[in-house]
Write a structure and sequence with these properties.
The chain is an alpha/beta fold. The protein has 2 domains: 21-270, Alpha-Beta Barrel (TIM Barrel); 272-381, Lyase, Ornithine Decarboxylase, Chain A, domain 1 (Beta Barrel). Helices cover 29% and strands 24% of the residues. It contains 11 helices and 17 strands. The strands form 2 sheets. Strands 1, 11, 12, 13, 14, 15, 16 and 17 form an 8-stranded mixed sheet that branches. The radius of gyration is 22 Å and the shape is elongated.
Length: 383
């Protein structure tokens, strides 16, 4: 059973992000163990958490980097990720960002449209380079996750529709400063069922058969990431379900000889190693409601307000035999959506108690804002 070290928090001003680097080590070790001996390459999705300490630890483990902006490329380079292990995705890459990738000779641009393909070709030509690209395919698969983080259906802005793929592949092969090396897919985030991934394997198998029949072969297939974590039980499930995830692709995706399979995992790597630590400012009663008001809110962790997401909320200071009481746990921001949880069953809570909002290692610190002119909180590490 995993537990947070309350004694380490009592001398620290709140709010702050706490990262367990030992758990991160264990997670990275598990991932590397499961892909050993397979033609699999894992890239860490920097958008999940770009804290420099976290990035340096992941880079040192040997994982590559999945990027969605030039800024992410710069921090990844500074953290020690190697350009030959960088994949650059995103629907709106600017000329400056593309040139940054070209100048660093990154592994691959994941291209999402014909105009982007043509611009990369022109910019590469101007620099006397050849850009390696993979075409992002929209496979029209519903991952059954929140609508804001679904990316693989025909209604989403991402990727090239399957009906246009053959034409785009032909165009990529014709451009003089483009080397087409693969196909890229990503169907969404916080996916906890393996069935959408199995469906993705079937769709990819069909596409590979189709292109094999036309003598078009790809060096690599990139299936993105999106693997979810258990937000309700981080202590008993401190790691994402990596085994069934990788097993699904091993069993159902028919790679060609010499073909590599790439993954882009973010949340699954870092979510459970991070917590948002806050203090109780007030306990308030209003009609039939009791409110716990924390000194952290949506400015430190926006997922509940943005996605209606729920994170496990723990009172770390409460007595073991304290009676359970129903509270709404809220933040101090002047927005009605600044709520971490409604009707939370928690031990009797008092002003000054220390709370943990768990599984905040992904999309916590990296999405923090200074709305209401609230300062950005520091990060505290286990070692």
């Amino acid at each position: 059973m995993y537990q947070l070290p309350l004694s380490q928090f009592q001398s620290q001003s709140t709010p702050f992000y706490y990262y367990d680097l030992n758990l991160l080590d264990d997670t990275l070790r598990k991932v590397k163990q499961l892909i050993e001996g397979k033609p699999y390459v894992v890239h860490y999705a920097v958008k999940a958490n770009s804290n420099p300490v976290i990035l340096r630890q992941i880079a040192a483990s040997g994982l590559g980097a999945d990027l969605v902006s030039g800024g992410e490329m710069q921090v990844a380079l500074q953290a020690g990720f190697q350009p030959q292990h960088m994949m650059f995705a995103g629907v709106g890459k600017t000329d400056q960002e593309i040139n940054l990738g070209l100048d660093n000779d990154i592994a691959c641009f994941n291209v999402e449209s014909v105009p982007e393909l043509e611009v990369i070709n022109a910019l590469a030509a101007a620099r006397g380079r050849v850009a390696r690209v993979a075409i992002r395919v929209n496979p029209d698969i519903d991952a059954h996750t929140h609508s804001y983080i679904t990316t693989g259906t025909a209604a989403n802005k991402f990727g090239v529709g399957i009906e246009l793929l053959s034409q785009v592949v032909e165009l990529a092969q014709s451009l003089p400063c483009i080397e087409l090396i693969g196909l890229h897919f990503h169907i969404g985030s916080q996916i906890t069922l393996m069935e959408p991934y199995r469906m993705l394997c079937e769709r990819i198998n069909e596409l590979l058969d189709f292109f094999d029949s036309r003598n078009v072969h790809f060096k690599m297939i990139d299936v993105g990431g999106g693997l979810g974590v258990d937000y309700e039980h981080p202590d008993t499930c401190p790691m994402a379900p990596f085994e069934p995830f990788f097993d699904t692709f091993t069993q159902h995706l028919h790679l060609r000889e010499g073909q590599q399979l790439h993954f882009e995992l973010g949340r699954a790597i870092v979510a459970q190693c991070g917590s948002l630590i806050a203090s109780v400012v007030f306990v308030k009663e209003n009609r039939n409601k009791r409110f716990v008001i924390l000194d952290a809110g949506m400015t430190q962790l926006v997922r509940p307000a943005l996605y209606q997401a729920h994170h496990l909320i723990q009172n770390l200071s409460a007595d073991a035999d304290a009676p359970m009481v129903t509270y709404d746990v809220v933040g101090p921001v002047c927005e009605s959506s600044d709520v971490f949880g409604h009707d939370e069953e928690l031990p009797l809570t008092s002003r000054g108690h220390i709370f943990a909002i768990r599984s905040a290692g992904a999309y916590g610190e990296v999405m923090a804002s200074q709305y209401n002119m609230r300062p950005l909180p520091p990060a505290v590490f286990s070692r």
